[in-house]
Design brief:
Blueprint (H helix, E strand, L loop, with lengths): L7 H15 L5 E5 L2 H12 L7 E3 L8 H4 L18 E9 L3 H11 L6 E9 L11 E5 L8 E5 L5 E5 L1
Parallel strand pairs: 1-2, 1-3, 3-4, 4-5
Antiparallel strand pairs: 6-7
Length: 164
């Protein structure tokens, strides 16, 4: 699929169906800050799940932390449920190198040992540097390494993509 054909709201329907198939009874959604957190929040509501989705940050476990440091306004991890023994579905907007996912899994294990962790993303853009694979990727696209694709959300909660 081309970049021009990416319509975030249309892709969301595919993500909803994919996550419905991945989520086990008693499982929990954890969105990766920021686009993944927005998606997980909406999935939680649309799937009729009780409580709220978790939010996880990759900041403290990034392999480039010494270079990037802690950014102002960086989101912190908020997991309003037990992780130990729970089936977790990680949600993100775009999967690229796999480094953010590696960092997030390290952060998740700081809170306990889940029974399983599955990954669901709107877009898999290839370019993996680590052996990370999404259990659900709504669409796969190829982008030049110089381009960045990220999810945006307007004041009404509708999703779109930004390409820089």
């Amino acid at each position: 699929m081309s970049i021009a054909g990416l319509e975030a709201e249309s892709l969301y329907a595919g993500l909803l169906a994919g996550v419905r198939g991945l989520l086990k009874p008693g499982g929990a959604l954890v969105g990766i800050w920021s686009g993944g957190a927005w998606l997980a929040e909406r999935l939680q509501r649309d799937l009729g799940l009780p409580g709220e989705a978790g939010v996880i940050s990759s900041t403290l476990h990034r392999d480039d932390f010494s270079r990037r440091g802690l950014s102002a306004g960086a989101e912190v991890t908020k997991l309003p449920f037990e992780i130990e023994g729970r089936h977790i579905v990680l949600v993100d907007d775009v999967l690229y190198t796999g480094r953010t996912i590696r960092a997030v899994v390290n952060e998740l294990y700081d809170f306990g040992r889940p029974a399983s962790v599955r990954l669901a993303v709107l877009v898999d853009r290839g370019g993996r540097e680590l052996p990370i694979e999404a259990a659900c990727a709504v669409v796969k696209v190829e982008l030049p390494a110089s381009q960045r694709l990220s999810l945006a959300r307007d004041s009404a909660g509708r999703f779109s993509f930004e390409i820089r």
